[in-house]
Automatic annotation (TrEMBL):
GO function terms (MF aspect): carbohydrate transmembrane transporter activity; symporter activity
Every Major facilitator superfamily (MFS) profile domain range: 30-179
Main location: membrane
Pfam families: Sugar_tr (PF00083)
Transmembrane segments: 23-43, 84-103, 115-131
InterPro entries: MFS_dom, MFS_sugar_transport-like, MFS_trans_sf, STP/PLT_plant, Sugar/inositol_transpt
Location of this chain's protein in the cell: Membrane
Protein name as catalogued: Major facilitator superfamily (MFS) profile domain-containing protein
Keyword Transmembrane helix found: yes
Family according to the record: Belongs to the major facilitator superfamily. Sugar transporter (TC 2.A.1.1) family.
UniProt KW keywords: Membrane, Sugar transport, Symport, Transmembrane, Transmembrane helix, Transport
Higher taxonomy: Eukaryota, Viridiplantae, Streptophyta, Embryophyta, Tracheophyta
Topology of the protein relative to the lipid bilayer: Multi-pass membrane protein
Gene Ontology cellular component list: membrane
Length: 179
């Protein structure tokens, strides 16, 4: 009857050595920037979903979709848009984020996490400015593509920060802790 029940376990280890790490401003800012990748993705999903259903947005940038929406009187809210251009607008960010995460690993290896995250931030800022000033669909797609590149760089740098402890060489302190 309880075959599919998830169980959580808290494991404590005793006898370990307490590390003397401090919460510095640099550590705080690094963690803040590293956590921004997931935040940006979630924010974009919420915003782009709402914006692509706004009549003012559709009538300005996607008039054919707007006309189709006005002609359709059904109440079905699922799969109501059939536009390759609107799909390209929505998915360009996610495709760019996926592809740029591969490039970001090379940039991180060559120049370090700091410059990789800086490049991602500048690219994201540029994409935001282009989207804010967009006058046509091409500018919207280009802006979202640049946003995706920024997110891809931020997510790649975030993973490298999380994995930093696993990648460092073993020291005598580590040997004592894991022995």
């Amino acid at each position: 009857m309880l075959d599919n029940v998830a169980v959580g376990v808290i494991v404590t280890t005793s006898g370990g050595k307490e590390q003397q790490g401090k919460m510095t401003l640099f550590v705080f800012l690094t963690c803040l920037v590293a956590s921004s990748g997931g935040l940006i993705f979630g924010y974009d999903i919420g915003i782009s979903g709402g914006v692509t259903s706004m009549d003012s947005f559709l009538s300005r940038f996607f008039p054919s979709v707007y006309k189709q929406q006005m002609a359709d009187s059904s109440t079905n809210q699922y799969c109501k848009f059939d536009s390759l251009l609107l799909t390209l607008f929505t998915s360009s960010l996610y495709v760019a984020a996926f592809l740029s995460s591969f490039l970001a690993s090379t940039v991180t290896r060559m120049f370090g996490r700091k410059w990789s995250m800086f490049a991602g931030g500048i690219t994201f800022l540029l994409g935001s400015a282009i989207n804010g000033a967009a006058m046509n669909v091409l500018m919207l797609i280009l802006g979202r593509f640049l946003l995706g590149i920024g997110i891809g760089f931020a997510n790649q740098a975030k993973r490298s920060i999380y994995l930093l402890q696993e990648d460092r060489p073993c020291t005598s302190r580590d040997a004592n802790r894991y022995s």
